[in-house]
């Protein structure tokens, strides 16, 4: 797959199918990007498991933090990597040992590792690199457009409302 650009249907399909996310590199520091991405994803109804060995056993935003992927007590749909590119191969190795395998390996803005991505894809896992699920969700749901950023997605359709929390939802084409 070409990881230089992604079709909105590919990203939207991922965001609509994922329910549980392991965030590797989650921070308890409320000024770190991983903290507010975690907060945003929780607010949108995703079940997010912070992964941070230094915070293991403690809570971040009310969610128990784990030291490694294998410690999470339930199946994970997506592994969101908030670590330097050099850490990606080891994280992908951990993900490939999970049973069942996650559906998606997502690497945050500035994070790309083509060899690790190829290994994940060979195992049937979708891969996204150098993107942020918070930004992509906001763009595809139309929320970013409301805050003055041109999302490139225009629709006269009424926003989707989900049970239990406020969400525009990612629009299907």
TrEMBL record:
Pfam families: CoA_binding_2. InterPro entries: CoA-bd, NAD(P)-bd_dom_sf. It comes from the Bacteria. Residues 14-111 form the CoA-binding domain. This is CoA-binding protein. It comes from Mesorhizobium opportunistum. The lineage of its organism: Bacteria, Pseudomonadati, Pseudomonadota, Alphaproteobacteria, Hyphomicrobiales.
């Amino acid at each position: 797959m070409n990881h230089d650009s992604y079709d909105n249907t590919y990203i939207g399909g991922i965001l609509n199918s994922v329910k549980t996310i392991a965030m590797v590199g989650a921070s308890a520091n409320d000024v770190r990007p991983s903290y507010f991405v975690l907060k945003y994803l929780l607010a949108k109804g995703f079940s997010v498991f912070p992964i941070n060995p230094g915070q293991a056993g403690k809570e971040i935003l009310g969610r128990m933090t784990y030291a490694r992927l294998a410690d999470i007590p339930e199946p994970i749909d997506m592994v969101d990597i908030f670590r330097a590119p050099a850490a990606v191969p080891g994280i992908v190795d951990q993900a490939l040992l999970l049973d069942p395998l996650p559906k998606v390996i997502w690497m945050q803005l500035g994070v790309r590792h083509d060899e690790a991505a190829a290994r994940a894809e060979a195992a049937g896992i979708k891969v996204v690199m150098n993107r942020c699920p918070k930004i992509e969700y906001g763009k595809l749901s139309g929320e970013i457009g409301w805050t003055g950023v041109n999302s490139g997605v225009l629709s006269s359709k009424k926003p989707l409302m989900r049970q239990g929390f406020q969400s525009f939802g990612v629009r299907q084409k």
